Amino acid sequence: MVISHSEGKLILAHSELLCRLNGGVQLRALVDDIRLLADAKLLIADAGAVSWSLSLDDDEQLEAIAAFYGLEKDKR
């Protein structure tokens, strides 16, 4: 599944998420390392040694990611 984002594209695959951002930057995370913060519309990837976050454009993007991966949305 591909989701258009104001900073590029989010590519959702079976076990990982790839963010291809404008300017050639790519961020990758395994599903087990992803958290979603509903109030802030924030996607957080934390694999221990490497972590990153991306502000989502809207609630629809957050809902699509949560539904695709079966993730709970944190309220914090």
Could you please describe the fold and organization of this structure?
- The chain is mainly beta and 76 residues long.
- It is 14% helix and 47% strand.
- Strands 1-2-3-4 form a 4-stranded antiparallel sheet, with helices on one face. It has a 4-stranded mixed sheet with strand order 7-6-5-8, with no helix packed on it.
- A hairpin with a 2-residue loop joins strand 1 and strand 2 (8-12).
- It is globular, with a radius of gyration of 11 Å.
- The mean pLDDT is 95.
Number of helices: 1
Residue ranges: pLDDT <50 for 5 or more in a row?
none
Rounded to an integer, what's the Rg over CA atoms? 11 Å
Cross-sheet strand order for the largest sheet: 1-2-3-4
Main sheet specs: 4 strands, antiparallel
Strand content: over 45%
How far the N terminus sits from the C terminus, by CA atoms, comes to 27 Å
Number of strands: 8
Quick one: overall form?
globular
Helix content range: 10-25%
Q: Mean pLDDT, as a whole number?
A: 95
Give the SSE order as H and E letters: EEEEEEEHE
SS-based class: mainly beta
Give me a quick take on this structure.
This protein has 76 residues and is mostly beta strands.
Any descriptors?
single chain, 76 residues, four-stranded mixed beta sheet, mainly beta
SSE inventory with pairings:
Layout: E1 2-5, E2 8-12, E3 16-21, E4 26-30, E5 34-37, E6 42-46, E7 51-55, H1 59-69, E8 73-74
Parallel strand pairs: 5-8
Antiparallel strand pairs: 1-2, 2-3, 3-4, 5-6, 6-7
